[in-house]
Amino acid sequence: MRIYEQRNNKRDFQCGYCFTDGHNKRNCPHMKQHWDANADLRGLRRLGTSDTIKGVDNKMFPSQWQQYYSDSDALRQFRAHWVYMTDRFSTKTKAKPKKRKKAKCGFCGSTAHNRRNCNKLKNFIYVLNQTNKAYRSAYYDKFIEGMGLGAGALVSMRHPYGFVDSSGVAIITTFPTEKIMFTNLKPSWSDYATRAEAKILLNGETGKFNLAQDCFYADYQTAQAEDIWSHMFGEWGRLVEVVSPAPNRPTKDWFLGQSPCFSWIVKKRDQKTLMHEFHHLIKHFYPHNNLRTKLGAKVYDQYYTR
């Protein structure tokens, strides 16, 4: 899942005041210096062009930006942030402590427990795992056993724009069985989508294609007829057909034995958000008749009995 794969990515910070990388305006040294240098202006809620401002020039900007920003740009930044600086640096009277809100579970919203002790969270992990296992079972029957997809399969490929030099028969060199998840069916731009990229050797060159979104070439009518698998079929798809099936496909028992851990995502998102994203896929693939019990009557009825 994209949201999981990018969990360790560090954000790049740029100050909104001086445009320097590495800090934000809350920790901007230039802003504090400019505030201290203009103590005589304190008490004014807003500054006009007639107010005399001291010590503010384009040296506040990074050196590579100074050729583009003049002193007047620095003064404009100072005036625009004056209210922020006043609220940030002015001495404040000690506020009366706010009454602490009662703690509640970040997953289901109950005030009787937290995430660590939330049975709904544990049940939801079970639902996701069972949904994923059923999806993988259906995927195995349709594409691995049914079509012969897998490492070593020969497949007819086409470039999505129809370029001849990117078409032909390729061999799948790597088939990412661990990335086959029901979240493959989420649109590729979604934070909850999982890319499953197979590597190929085509015309002497290595390449890859997504086994999820727009994997198989098909016209519009065919794609619509595929129902729940429709995201995998489309006019932009690269895989036309399996010419020769994979010689050593995994057994279904082994394939179903691979299971991702959904514990991370339920710790980062609440039940409402995840149900909004996954309710239709859960309904389609969840293999048991106890979904109302696992999700809870209130959540189940909200999404499935309207």
Show the helix and strand layout.
Elements lengths: L1 H4 L23 H9 L33 H10 L1 H8 L29 H27 L8 E4 L10 E7 L22 E6 L2 E6 L5 E2 L2 H6 L7 E2 L4 E6 L7 H6 L5 H6 L2 H15 L5 H5 L1 H8 L2
Parallel strand pairs: 5-6
Antiparallel strand pairs: 1-2, 1-7, 2-3, 3-4
Helix pairs in contact: 5-9
Q: Could you list the spans in which at least 5 consecutive residues all have pLDDT below 50?
A: none
pLDDT averaged residue by residue? 87
Number of β-strand runs: 7
Q: Tell me the number of helical segments per DSSP (H or I, 4 or more residues long).
A: 11
Helix content: 25-40%
Write the element-wise H/E pattern from the N-terminal end onward.
HHHHHEEEEEHEEHHHHH
The secondary-structure class comes to alpha+beta
Report the major sheet.
5 strands, antiparallel
Global outline: flat
Radius of gyration: 28 Å
Oligomer status:
single chain
Strand order in space, largest sheet: 4-3-2-1-7
Distance N to C terminus? 29 Å
- How much of the sequence lies in strands comes to 5-15%
Q: How would you characterize the overall build of this protein?
A:
By secondary structure, this protein is an alpha+beta fold. The protein has 11 helices and 7 strands. Helix 5 packs parallel to helix 9. The longest helix is centred in the middle third of the chain and has 27 residues. The two termini are 29 Å apart. The model has no long low-confidence stretch (mean pLDDT 87).
